[in-house]
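Dear H.,

Thanks for agreeing to be a second pair of eyes. The structure we're designing against is below in token form, covering all 289 positions.
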């Protein structure tokens, strides 16, 4: 008699995880203030899209596009594991064209872009799409005579990142945003004077339980960097070094891998508003949900 209620509860949880929470996409707004951010970039908005794993344009993807409609976005950052097969890359291109951000879309490769022949074809597909892939390199972004540096490294999880190479020639005193698929680059980023790291890879654990947390993080290093914002003393304890003013945000991502489910770990897109500490507080354009 007891077995039936247990089985029913398990079935209900599985149904919720697969059919409800997996597509319960949310928008996470982040206002982050930095002392080194130039005044011209106060209010600069970066949209982070992590772990899209686009294979088709279904309920989740349509929800994402609806949430972004009407948003003020200055730059799109795709932090790896972007598309599945050529069809996913094509759907990504069409989606980006509808955002109408022209040359303001950048991305980095994740571990799934490096899985044998399948990964090679994916890299080729994405490199032809409407985004600039940063592979251990940087770009300088100018605004009203001031500048910040956007840095992108190849996938740290597979050991292909080279932050020193990515920073070669970059203005040493400039504010720097680093795109890296896996957060295991955080220690090197702190040593290099990076101001903000945007990462993903973990899916936030994808399956989480009360008290226990994430069942599987897919991390080999800094295993506490599972999801959310890390800064200050907490980040220093994790890294074992002083990160200074550096912050790292690890997104739960949009898509899924392995299991077609999420539990206590809903998908998210992240909209970061950069704030200059020396600037007077200005009205922020409201986030539209």
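And this is the sequence the design step returned. I haven't edited it by hand at all.
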């Amino acid at each position: 008699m007891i077995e039936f209620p247990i089985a029913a509860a398990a079935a209900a949880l599985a149904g919720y995880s697969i059919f409800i929470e997996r597509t319960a996409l949310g928008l996470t707004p982040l206002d982050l203030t930095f002392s080194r951010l130039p005044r011209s970039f106060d209010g600069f908005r970066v949209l982070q899209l992590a772990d899209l794993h686009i294979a088709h344009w279904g309920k989740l993807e349509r929800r994402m596009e609806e949430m972004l409609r009407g948003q003020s976005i200055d730059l799109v950052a795709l932090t790896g594991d972007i598309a599945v097969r050529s069809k996913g890359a094509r759907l990504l291109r069409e989606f980006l064209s509808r955002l109408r951000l022209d040359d303001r879309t950048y991305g980095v490769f994740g571990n799934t872009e490096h899985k044998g022949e399948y990964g090679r074809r994916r890299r080729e597909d994405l490199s032809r799409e409407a985004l600039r892939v940063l592979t251990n390199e940087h770009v300088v972004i100018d605004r009203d005579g001031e500048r910040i540096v956007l840095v992108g490294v190849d996938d740290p999880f597979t050991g292909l990142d080279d932050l020193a190479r990515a920073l070669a020639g970059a203005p040493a005193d400039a504010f720097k945003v680093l795109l890296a698929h896996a957060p295991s680059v955080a220690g090197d980023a702190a040593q290099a004077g990076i101001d903000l790291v945007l990462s993903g890879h973990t899916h936030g654990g994808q399956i989480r339980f009360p008290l226990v947390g994430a069942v599987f993080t897919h991390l080999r290093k800094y295993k506490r960097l599972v999801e959310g914002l890390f800064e200050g003393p907490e980040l220093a304890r994790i890294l074992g070094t002083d990160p200074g003013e550096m912050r790292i945000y690890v997104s739960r991502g949009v898509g899924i891998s392995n299991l077609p489910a999420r539990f206590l770990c809903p998908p998210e897109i992240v909209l970061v508003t950069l704030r200059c500490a020396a600037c007077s507080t200005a009205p922020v354009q409201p986030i539209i949900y």
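Two observations from my side: The first strand starts at residue 26 and ends at 34. The two ends are 45 Å apart (CA to CA).

Warmly,
E.
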